[in-house]
Design goal:
Ribosomal Protein S5, domain 2, single chain, four-stranded mixed beta sheet, 10 strands, 23% strand, globular, Alpha-Beta Plaits
Length: 253
């Protein structure tokens, strides 16, 4: 699913390439999470540009929310605008997808983020066929316990074989079916951790459709009462399904 909350990026000309990754807390405080991002630096090198890039998100980083793809899309949109590269949405998406593949930070998030709603990718690559279920405005509740290393999973032939076997082989009919297929995939993939298992069990007892964030140690759920069920497990995130894909903003000072 494509959520409205994501990553914003600001790019300024600089003598050396620099990336600052930051997160804004629920209280509004901004903290630096990292001062490097190999996928973003790779993209700048491919473009032959030198800039200082600052990314900001309110979501937990590395927790299965597709923020690596979001950071690449927003950064490349900013660089495209700053240096008049004429990449356009297609060129931005192509290079973002390439950077994800090269650095094993994701496989299909960039393709998903080109438009909104719930998506089912029916083909590989940035131009693979995607079936979308429009659901702009739907609220999703999530909680996260921490990151899971996406490169580590994508570098494991054994893990990838297990994930491949878990794939349901069909697209969801509606949102409820989306959650059923997602949960079945999470179960069969072998990625569910004990803490995620405990939270999913609580959702099951309350009749709340829920599954595991991919790829992060967390849970996302749908329906009334989801916040109350997940609240004992950590900071609750209220997410909104977007009806549109990524976009570039205006000039910033």
């Amino acid at each position: 699913m494509v959520i409205r909350q994501g990553v914003t990026a600001v790019a300024d000309p600089a003598r050396a390439r620099q990336v600052v990754v930051s997160r804004r807390s629920p209280e509004g405080n901004l903290s630096v999470v990292a001062t490097t991002s190999p996928p973003v630096e790779y993209a700048m090198e491919r473009l032959g540009v030198t800039a200082r890039v600052t990314t900001e998100t309110a979501l937990p980083i590395g927790a299965g929310f597709g923020l690596s793809a979001a950071a690449l899309l927003s950064t490349l949109s900013a660089l495209d605008h700053l240096f008049s590269l004429a990449l356009g949405p297609r060129g931005v998406a192509d290079l973002a997808h390439e950077a994800e593949i090269v650095h094993r930070t994701g496989l299909g998030d960039v393709a998903a983020c080109r438009e909104g709603g719930f998506d089912c990718r029916k083909g590989a690559g940035i131009e693979g066929e995607i079936l979308r279920i429009p659901a702009g405005g739907e609220e999703i509740t999530a909680v996260t316990f921490g990151p899971i290393s996406t490169p580590q999973v994508l570098s494991s032939a054994k893990a990838l074989a297990r994930v491949d076997r878990a794939y349901p082989g069909r697209c969801p009919r509606d949102i409820a079916d989306f959650f059923r297929l997602s949960r079945d995939f999470a179960e069969k993939s072998g990625c569910i951790t004990p803490r995620v298992r405990e939270g999913l069990a609580a959702c099951d007892r309350a009749g709340i459709p829920a599954s595991m964030t991919m790829l992060g140690e967390g849970i996302f759920a749908w329906g009334r009462g989801a916040g109350g069920v997940l609240a004992p497990f950590g900071e609750i995130l209220f997410l909104e399904v977007s009806d549109a894909g990524f976009s570039a903003g205006e000039d910033l000072p």
